[in-house]
Specification:
Strand order of the largest sheet: 7-8-9-10-11-15-14-13-12
Number of domains: 2
Number of strands: 20
CATH topology of the largest domain: Rossmann fold
Strand content: 25-35%
CATH superfamily of the largest domain: ANL, N-terminal domain
Low-confidence stretches: none
Helix content: 25-40%
Radius of gyration: 21 Å
Order of helices and strands: EEHHEEHEHEEHEHEEEEEEEEEHEEHEH
Shape: globular
CATH class of the largest domain: Alpha Beta
């Protein structure tokens, strides 16, 4: 696919061509439009590549160069899975500096979608134009968590974070079809999907066409994508059902070995979300008997005795004994990345500096 053939974009019902798209974006008062304009400017130049910043799914964050034709191949893969049709509406309410938003723009270019652009926020659906039906809306779990209903939205694709059990339960009452994506910058957005509500709900991620999976000796996922030149080795621990299907268990970097039992923090955190409204995560602390013992850290002032006792009672009810945190810590503010992800190692370093951890 020649990227130079994809230069028409419809934004908020305005069909635009070439540099007129850039001019339109720069003329808008909102900063997020200017970011869209900068990406289109890069898309329209003669370079066959675009430079992207990875988030660290396969190691330390780094800059990578990808072909625009590879981005179009990814867009084609998504268009086939969700059966996009010309002039359908797609929501763009994610920051354009990240791969999810960049790829949504490319999908709109490829499938001739009407891209409804609104300012990224914690509850973007409340800012939708009245009477506007959205066929496809990529959101983060945090954005969907703040939504009370999805009337007017047909399909929602979640990505960028794990899904709590509480959110999964909530979205069973939503009218929109909700999907969970697996992917990263290195794979140019999602390469596997699972359904979260309605018919065909599954815990398994299913590969899109042209994608296959294996695993390494750590049980970490290895991804092969038809339009990428080499396989991608991740740090994501999985249960591999077959070459096209897997269950995600957690990050290899975060696995806790407690008394010979491997604990996956992300799975434990899914259970704890229903009891803890503040930001939190679990981690392993060195222990003479267990090797590592499971601990919980919460972004908050220290809970009152009554609130802490209630939390511990809920934990004992919901989790198996070896999954229950042995200590609970509190920190007022977690260090976070630009995309609001918790910097776990930095939080643990803060605890080490302030406690006998």
């Amino acid at each position: 696919m020649n990227f130079k053939n994809y230069t028409t974009l419809t934004i908020n019902d305005n069909q635009l061509q070439g540099n007129v798209i850039v001019d339109f974006c720069f003329q808008q008062q909102e900063e997020y439009f200017k970011a869209i304009g900068l990406f289109i400017q890069e898309w329209l130049n003669d370079s066959p590549t675009i430079t992207l910043q990875t988030s660290g799914s396969t190691g330390n964050p780094k800059l990578i160069e990808v072909l625009k034709e590879q981005m179009l191949a990814s867009a084609a893969m998504t268009a086939k899975y969700f059966q996009f049709q010309k002039n359908q509406t797609a929501l763009l309410c994610l920051p354009t500096q990240y791969i999810a938003a960049k790829m949504m723009i490319v999908r709109a270019l490829y499938s001739q979608l009407n891209l409804i652009c609104i300012k990224p926020s914690s509850n973007p659906l409340q800012n939708l134009p009245k009477n506007k039906i959205i066929d496809f809306a990529p959101l983060t779990p945090m954005q969907l968590n703040n939504v009370s209903n999805t009337i007017g939205v047909k399909k929602i694709l979640l990505g960028g974070a794990t899904i709590s059990k509480e959110l999964e339960k909530k979205l069973q009452n939503f009218s929109a079809e909700v999907y969970h994506s697996y992917g990263m910058t290195e794979t140019l957005s999602h390469i596997a999907i699972r359904k979260l509500n309605g018919k065909n709900v599954s815990n398994y991620f299913k590969a899109l066409d042209g994608v296959s999976f294996t695993k390494d000796e750590r049980d970490c996922l290895i991804i092969k994508v038809s339009f990428l030149s080499s396989a991608i080795i991740t740090n994501d621990v999985i249960d591999l059902k077959d070459e096209h299907t897997f269950i995600w268990k957690g990050r290899w970097d975060n696995v806790i070995n407690s008394g010979g039992v491997k604990l996956f923090p992300e799975q434990i955190e899914q259970q704890l979300h229903q009891f803890i409204k503040d930001l939190f995560f679990v981690f392993g602390k060195n222990d003479a008997l267990l090797g590592e013992k499971l601990c919980l850290v919460i972004e908050a002032e220290k809970y009152s005795t009554e609130k802490l006792n209630m939390l511990q009672e809920n934990i004992q009810t919901a989790l198996k004994k070896y999954e229950q945190p042995k200590e609970i810590f509190f920190i007022k503010h977690f260090p976070k990345t630009a995309s609001e992800k918790i910097q776990r190692s930095n939080v643990i370093a803060l605890l080490k500096n302030n406690t006998t951890l």
